[in-house]
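Late entry, evening session. Most of the bench is empty. Finally got around to the prediction I had been postponing all week. Sequence below, unchanged from the version circulated by S.P.
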Amino acid sequence: MNKLSHSYEPHLAVREISVLPGKEWVPGVAGWFMVRVEDGAGYWLEAKSSMELEVGTVLLIPGNGQGRVRASQLNGVSLNCFSVMPARLTGLITLGEQHFLKQAASRQEGTCRFFPAQSEVASKAAELCAERNQGGILLRVKLLELFVEAFGTQWEEPMPKPMNADARERLQLFLRESPPDALLEISFTQLAEITRCTARHLSRIFYDLTGMSFRDKRAEIRLARARDLLATSESKVVEVALESGFKSLSLFNLMFVKRFGISPGRWRQKHGIKDGKNNPRNGKLDNFRLLKNAKQSLYAPG
């Protein structure tokens, strides 16, 4: 696995962003952004279109988009926003649902959706933004619920059937209906039994569907879990390693460095955790750091 950017974008946490007059804010991260215009005046700009932003308007922005918010020349604009990283919701959403979100972003071709201030989505967003300082699991659940509601009935659309049947279709069904964490609970041999095919054939179709081997996919899920534990808990590094499914600290350190190019301890320090305290959890990051983080890309495991 290749070394990737060290940037880390917190998700399901409401943050405040102030854009100075005439300046721009680019939500250039992987995953999705929900943005509410809190105050001021500004515009949403894309390659072939633009839209004036009214106070209370909510934007649902795919992370692969090319758009940006520009404040007016006379007044700045204040935004409340939170990001949703589907790859970090292992154990909660299935790979099929992750695929739906990727396809939704692709179908939009980088454009965003708008919800006027009078809409139900915008009204709920206003309530949740008002609760932003409370934080906690209840707020995160509500933010995720709002994000899901923004897609309406699209979640109910049937997934297209694969052209190839038999083992490939059975594997695709398993991946679509099971949370990614399920891959940590079964062996490759057990998965071959579920799909009723040989190990050689399973290796080929698993790579075709996920873009990586069974072993690499399991490691990717464990490392994603470990990274979030480092950012959101006060657990010692060795405890994070064990809780993420690594049998030894040395193996965890080796794989973390190989994947992210930095040790777990240094990664935790780099992202605001000192003496076991997770400072950024209150969501009050300075605007400079917010802008810097927002303009960096975060790799989302397949």
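Two things to note before I forget:
Residues 95 and 175 are 6 Å apart (CA to CA).
Residues 15-157+287-294 form a domain with the Jelly Rolls fold (CATH 2.60.120.810).
Will write this up properly tomorrow.
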